[in-house]
Task: structure prediction
Amino acid sequence: MRKPKIVVLGAGYGGLMTATRLQKQVGVNEADIVLVNKNDYHYETTWLHEASAGTLHHDRVRYDVREVIDTQKVEFVQATVEEIKHEENRVILDSGEISYDYLVISLGAESETFGIKGLKEYAFSIVNVNAARQIREHIEYQFATYNTEAEKKDERLTIVVGGAGFTGIEFLGELSNRIPELCKEYDVDFHKVKVICVEAAPMVLPGFDPELVNYATSYLEKKGVEFRIGTAIKEATPEGIIVAKGEDEVEEIKAGTVVWAAGVRGNSVIEKSGIEAMRGRVKVNLDLRVPGKENLFIVGDCSLIINEEINRPYPPTAQIAMQQGEVCARNIVALIRGKNELETFEFDNKGTVCSLGEDEAIGTAFGKKFVGAKASFLKKMIDNRALYMIGGPSLVFKKGKFNIF
Ligand code: FAD
Ligand code: NAD
Result:
């Protein structure tokens, strides 16, 4: 009898969690498993702000996909997914095509620019290793160039971060540690450097615990970050950004570096493939399948599940992507074994910790609030746990964060 073929697209948190669970639960004679990913490496998306600021080398945030998959059981294909022909159970890749019986889409997020003019051309986004490396290099270039010019351009030393969500705040935390190092390295006066965070909402980290938000804001302000709250970015230009000021006024902020961290959307492959979605996120059934599709699962940032308590979608997080990966693998195993009763996904919220640099953080976990070194310790443990869940103790020893004391 022909074995069913399970294809997993994307080797991020959701994809690797699904693939590593499938390789444990599926016998070699039961199914063929194929994992497709653009790069031969996985990157910790949740550490990209560190690589972007230059506080952690980009090689520390990535590892070879083959380190965590059992190549006897899972075939790894390095390719870029271009389109999913879900009516024909085929996936179009840049290097050919692949057919499937069961498909898991876990292609992650892209930056959402909301159609704001100039952002795609003139702003950076913290989206993958290539982007992180470019942001780090660009900032360093601005510092290196500053003293070479007869007429000093102070705007070279201005960095604008668009959005004070978790990505924006974590990046600011890393930047505030990196800037004194850059000043020293390039003989730049620290007081010439400006780091401005522009946030459209009336508060930093909208919706998060106000006491923790105050802690984060005052900590970052002490380190030199300037917050422009209730201020929306309207346009990015080669010189910087234009922000809304009051009802109909605008203001220009000149900056050599603009990093847009003001939102994400699901992967554009979803829309290109004609799958009904909201900003690239598909409202999946609780068994993680696309409505009306018996063999199509979506996990991670391309999926959307409503939090019934507040009647709003859960935010796209690694925590959810990993939990979905486990359920998705079990459901596929059930289907290939001829069972029709599938498990429903229930999010087990373990808390949220937002780092503010290497040894500072804020967060909620176990029903308690944490700040400072304790929160930072927690954050590193969360990072190490994610490694453990996917690659076991050897991956933790290799890539883990042990700078905890
Ligand atoms: P990803 O982990 O991003 O993986 C997607 C994979 O698909 C990647 O390997 C990518 O290369 C691949 N891929 C993409 N397009 C293609 C294609 N066309 N063809 C082939 N392969 C492709 N969440 C938390 O819970 N806690 C945190 O502390 C946290 N911190 C974050 C910090 C930052 C700076 C950012 C940006 C996000 C953070 N998040 C955090 C959110 C979290 O990273 C995402 O929710 C999570 O990565 C989603 O997992 P995923 O599997 O959907 O996608
Ligand atoms: P986000 O959507 O959470 O935050 C974006 C911020 O940008 C919002 O505060 C929004 O008001 C602001 N904004 C939107 N348009 C703007 C404009 N025109 N001008 C200025 N500000 C504008 O996005 P994110 O921070 O990239 O996070 C993406 C996802 O990743 C979220 O689900 C988040 O929870 C998750 N994440 C989690 C962590 C963590 O748990 N430590 C860290 C990073 C990201």
